[in-house]
Design brief:
With about 325 residues, this protein is α/β, with parallel strands linked by helices. The chain is built from eleven helices and eleven strands.
């Protein structure tokens, strides 16, 4: 990959992030989060997120450039998330990126947020190159993907309803845990045992379809039934059992696909890939089948500007530049 200075800007949800890379070298990575404020309301409030981005985006970019030891005039391109995400939040980052790229007369690169999660692995292994298998597990998407080239991939399996991250958040609410749900469910699960027989996330009889709606409903019904009967139950056991049912099928099918396609490398991306149980299961199963595992650092699994810059470099090398009239999209397909 070319040694280009790429600024990446991310503002799809509650993190305002900016990062600078040169090739695969990360020069800076700045993140301002409004998660603490959002936690007061039990989840992300779009208006609060948008205002937080407006206040933080300029400072995030300034800090990213300062830490990288660069001026804006040394940038080769500006990459920015244009979707998917909260529309108002996306517009803040996209508008800033448009103005900056236009003023510098350099390319604007519009990045699919999910492709950013897929690209995060390149930041952690300079030798990583396609083909490989990726487990994508985030708040909005859950899929097993065959990465064929830097720009082409095939979805091998996906969820038919809720994404894994969405299910973690919903279960967290049922268990009375604060936002964000994922890390809090994991912490609670560490003190419990997976002794409750919740339905696994893989649809029965299917090798390509996951479902989290039934699993989530099963957890809700278990807790509500116990509460209505006045019975005591272990929330830690519920968390551990849910976590196992949600994650085990994902790991199993990811490794199975790598073996089936004779692909020697597995990666993971998205916020749920920061989950400690998932990471340990992936390590164990990949070792068992003699597969190389590339796991992004946990900070690169959640939303960040570095992954957007990395995907921006991939699109830069492919010559995929955006026009200045591109608009933000709350929902875009995984393509």
């Amino acid at each position: 990959m070319e040694e280009k200075f790429i600024l990446g800007i991310e503002s799809s949800c509650d993190e305002t992030a900016a990062a600078v890379i040169c090739g695969r070298r990360l020069l800076s990575n700045v993140i301002f989060s409004s998660a603490t404020e959002q936690a007061k309301y039990g989840g992300v409030v779009p208006e609060i997120a948008s205002r937080a981005h407006t206040e933080a985006v300029d400072e995030a970019v300034k800090q990213a450039l300062n830490e990288a030891g660069l001026t804006v005039k040394e940038l080769d391109a500006v990459a920015v998330t244009y979707g998917a995400g909260l529309l108002g939040a996306l517009l803040v980052g996209l508008s800033f990126a448009k103005s900056l790229a236009y003023s510098l007369n350099i390319p604007l690169i519009a990045v699919n947020h999910i492709r950013g999660h897929l690209a995060a692995a390149y930041l952690c292994d300079n030798n990583l190159k396609p083909p490989y298998i990726t487990l994508l597990a985030s708040g909005g998407h859950t899929a097993i993907i065959h990465i064929k080239t830097y720009t082409e991939f095939e979805v091998l399996a996906s969820t038919s309803d809720d994404a894994a991250g969405e299910a973690f958040d919903k279960v967290a609410r049922v268990l009375g845990l604060p936002y964000p749900g994922g890390p809090n469910v994991q912490r609670l699960a560490e003190g419990g045992e997976a002794v409750i027989d919740f339905p696994p996330s893989l649809v029965r009889g299917s090798n390509t379809q996951f479902s989290y709606s039934g699993l989530k409903t099963s957890v809700i019904n278990y807790c509500h039934t116990a509460e209505q009967k006045g019975e005591q139950f272990s929330k830690a056991d519920v968390a551990a059992s849910f976590q196992k049912a949600a994650i085990d099928p994902l790991v199993k099918k990811t490794v199975e696909n790598a073996v089936k396609l004779n692909v020697g490398t597995v990666t993971a991306g998205g916020g749920v890939s920061a989950n400690g149980y998932l990471r340990e299961r992936l390590k164990a199963d990949c070792k068992k089948h003699n597969l190389k595992l590339v796991l992004p650092e946990k900070g690169f699994c959640t939303d960040n500007g570095a992954m957007i810059a990395m995907e921006g470099l991939i699109q830069y090398n492919a010559g995929n530049f955006a026009k200045m009239n591109i608009n933000a999209c709350a929902q875009i397909p995984l393509k």
